[in-house]
Please model this.
Amino acid sequence: MTRRVLVLAVSMVGFLGLTLVAEGPFSAIWEMGITFDPNGTFVSGIESTADLAYATGPVLWTSYSNFQLTVGYLWQEFGVRGDLGAFAIEGDVLFGPSTEDFLYAQAIMALSIAGVDVGLYYANLSDAVLGGPADGFALRVAGSVAALDIISITEMGARIEDEDFDGIDVVHSATGLYRHYETNPVVPGQGFTGEKVAVGGWSYGCIGDIRTILYFTCTGFDFFAVDLEDIDLGIGWLKTDLLVTYEVQTKSVALTPRIIVGDGLVCFEPYFAVVFGASAWEVDGFELGGLALVCAWNGVTVKDLTVFDPGRFVITTEDYGSRIESLEDAIEDGHEYYADYWELLSIEVVFDGCCGGTNRMLINTYFEEGSGGIFGWGMSYVEASVGLSMDIELSGNMTVSTTGLDALGLGIRLHW
Amino acid sequence: MGARRSWRFGAALVGSAVVVLTIVACAGFWNTSPQLGKLVVGLVQVTGTEGYVLVSVADMPRDGLAAIQFGTVGNEAITFTNIDPASIKVEGKNGFVVLAQAFAGGTGALIAAGCNGVVGGEILRFTFTVTGAHPTFVVTKAKVSLVDDANAFVTAWELSSTAYYAR
Model:
């Protein structure tokens, strides 16, 4: 026991000492978490991530490594960010060490000349990823003429993430873990694959923002869209967005009314949904689908989220911000949510610890219908983190539900 | 010396041209085929005696996958080994709900549906107790039916168990 205490003490002093000598262009963050499952396998998960960064002048070189208990060495990503003269450069390369595969690479070079932003994007997806092999590049030119913002994106086998298109996720199929990137090379075709021109940034009359998008591919016209935002209907508490999209054989109209509650409702945020009638053009009314109360004072944050219509709104998990989100958006964006819980009571306390660290305590309590618990209690999640210094943080979390202790986690975070 | 220098310069010039031409030829000129919808069955992950399998979709057509059927009782689409059938629990993800399931004797059938179509992402998570080394969980494509959010059968799709997929 004496030897173990001595080894632990020496290790702690050593880690603290590293933070004191850490200077210069090199920085690192190492996090490790262990999850215990008292109801099954005792240790159900171990995760370790290491973020390294090394600066050489205006260029920052980065490395990201991720280890998982069941998979082993899951991700290894190298990156570069910085400015080379007038050019801003960005690059990423992703490997899957557990399968010894190169997975994805992207390179971005941007330049601003006389108010015009020019960006060249390149990406390569290997055949080790389902969907590959694929590669391509895209040229983005953006500028302003008077009050108009004009963006032109020429696609040569790749697409850039923006308001109209998504980037790419490289997903590990067994665990569901993924890495997200801006340039998507999985675009059908060869050579020239598409051209998108977007003009926006102006308003007219009761319309707050007008934007038009024209997109055609190597096979011809694809779509033309007119996006009108913040249309004032003359009713102070109601505004709407209108999106009209013309495709080759179809035309679609999306009308999104929004209730404006103003700034008078301190701490409250209502979530409304439109109730349509028999046809898409009949609006029967508006439904209050959820209500959020969030108040923060002096390091203490109290939150009460209530979902009245769980078919339209959900509460996202702690990893995704513990907030109310529409079910459709949560699924589309891949945000995890609690399907069974309709209310969350949360209190979070953040305060300064000793030695420059920050301490944090979070208690989330969820309620569900028919749980059998008092007041419909369904689950509680407790998390605490203690900052031993500015560079060392210890954390622990616990999940308790109506079936007992579901999970227990311990973690450590080092920064130097 | 002059000839050697010229040879080196020429070799460097040719080498650079080869590199540039290779990059130009490869970059943006790889013929990428239109993507089929994909049903991805992850490898069995085991921790002690507990295991799980993730089933995901990618590039599903129209507004995404709305329902999936893994065979029927008597014509099951799922076969597994070294897994206790009585311990299998199935959790729907991304809005999917399991409507019916039957696991016994190394085979299984299941029906699940979602209220919102899923174009890409996880739809089901199977958790179970492992009874032996190297458990397997295999899906037979011919016995699986997919329905998209427009209530039409998805006929052009592929089944895969690769380690990685793009969405």
